[in-house]
Design a protein that fits this description.
The complex is a heterodimer of chains A (109) and B (276).
Chain A lengths: L4 E5 L9 H13 L4 E4 L2 H7 L2 H7 L4 E5 L2 H10 L9 E5 L5 H9 L3
Parallel strand pairs in A: 1-2, 1-3, 3-4
Chain B lengths: L8 E5 L10 H13 L3 E4 L13 E5 L6 H15 L13 E2 L9 H5 L5 E3 L5 E3 L11 H5 L5 E2 L15 H16 L4 H19 L2 H19 L3 H5 L4 H25 L8 H4 L2
Parallel strand pairs in B: 1-2, 1-3
Antiparallel strand pairs in B: 4-7, 5-6
Classes of the chains: A alpha/beta (109), B mainly alpha (276).
Chain lengths: 109, 276
């Protein structure tokens, strides 16, 4: 079974994600051998109905480092590209530590 | 180009065959710099469909000597050539509907002053004009009795997408009741407060005092509801608000009556018919 894809949201427009958490998570991703997609801002992509969301939503299992799972789920839906019901894991950089997020993102990747 | 539309520029950081990998520090610097400049970045791993066509414009960087600054310059050049969208023109602040909670009551549509909401062909509420939304204004989420409206960039839960607790639902329901007690809608009460301040101005003949009072009232209300001053200052008249609500109710009633008599044989009203 293929490892889940990884999506990292940089949340470029707001300070709601602690900078030290998102920087550390990105650093750990860069240190790993894992492939990943990094996007400047999922909200912005949702508003634009960016086709990249479709590519991500349809790519099978995916782990997403962003914010609250409820927000991420409905951002994809709002773009007309809902995430699949299964195989999606959303990690919350607003409330979880960089250690927790990185560990769960990179687990068996 | 519309500020909420258009493809973005995606950068694929190729470190596979034919290209020696970057150091992890240089990789971090490069990807951070690209993200800060508004580019989407894919770092592929073996077996990935990294460059699968999704309509975005793709630039593949594989120069192992490339430093972060040069990578950003190359990406900008590619973006200028392709006409891909630039980030930074609009802070993506807009409501997102949680359809697991939404009951399609249309309170948000009636309440919003800026035509952010509309309905689809099945008369289901949806966010149609995101860029009309007033940045940092979560007012519509405060009138939603089901706590179904999110602003992912808002500071506090549950508006930011945090889990909804029973207390949140009770609190939101209370807000709606309170607004009804105050005369039908929150805007009416807001305007009444403003008019009180104006009245004081006219009776006391003290311009500075009246203005200070008005500002104080608006500041208090803005603080209580977390509504930006520019939104408070652009409130329509109470009559306008009531008229919008009545139009929405009349259209809904007309549609329900039509559905009952012809059992939905006719096509549903178009969005234009619904436009209020």
């Amino acid at each position: 079974m293929a490892a889940p894809r990884i999506l990292f949201c940089h949340c470029a427009y707001a300070k709601v994600v602690p900078p030290e958490v998102k920087q550390e998570v990105l650093r750990r991703l860069c240190e790993s051998g894992a492939g990943f997609d990094a996007v400047p801002d999922l909200c912005d992509m949702s508003a634009r109905k960016d086709p990249a969301l479709k590519r991500i939503a349809e790519s099978g299992a995916v782990r997403i480092a962003a914010c609250y799972p409820r927000a991420v789920k409905w951002l994809f839906h709002a773009a007309g590209m809902p995430l699949p019901a299964e195989g999606v894991e959303i990690l919350n950089m607003r409330t979880q530590s960089a250690d927790e997020v990185s560990r769960d993102l990179l687990e068996k990747s | 180009m519309n500020k909420t539309q258009g493809p973005n520029q995606r950068i694929v950081l190729h470190e596979g065959p034919g290209s020696a990998p970057l150091s992890s520090e240089e990789r971090y610097r490069t990807i951070s710099a690209l993200l800060d400049s508004g580019f989407e970045v894919t770092r592929p791993s073996r077996g990935w469909e990294a460059a699968r066509d999704d309509g975005s414009t793709i630039l593949i960087l594989e120069n192992t000597e490339l430093k972060a600054e040069a990578a950003v310059a190359a990406a900008r050049e590619a973006r200028d050539r392709s006409g891909a969208r630039q980030l930074g023109e609009w802070k993506p602040w807009f409501p997102v509907i949680d359809y697991d909670r939404c009951t399609n009551c249309m309170q948000c549509l009636t309440f919003c002053l800026f035509d952010v909401y509309g309905v689809d062909e099945n008369q289901k509420i949806q966010v149609q004009h995101q860029s009309n939304c007033k940045t940092d204004c979560p007012a519509c989420s405060r009138v939603c009795p089901e706590v179904a409206i999110l602003f992912p960039k808002y500071k506090n839960g549950p508006i930011n997408g945090d889990a909804v607790r029973q207390d949140d639902v009770r609190r939101e329901a209370m807000k709606v009741d309170i607004s009804a007690l105050l005369g039908g809608d929150l805007y009416a009460s807001l305007r009444n407060r403003t008019q009180e301040a104006r009245k004081r101005f006219s009776t006391e003949r003290d311009e500075s005092r009246a203005l200070l009072e008005r500002k104080r009232c608006l500041k208090e209300l803005g603080k209580d509801l977390d509504i930006p001053p520019e939104v408070l200052m652009s409130l329509p008249s109470v009559e306008d608000i009531h008229e919008r609500a009545e139009r929405a109710k009349a259209k809904l009633a007309a549609r329900q009556a039509r559905s009952q008599t012809v059992r939905d044989a006719r096509p549903a009203p178009t969005e234009t018919e619904w436009g209020i």
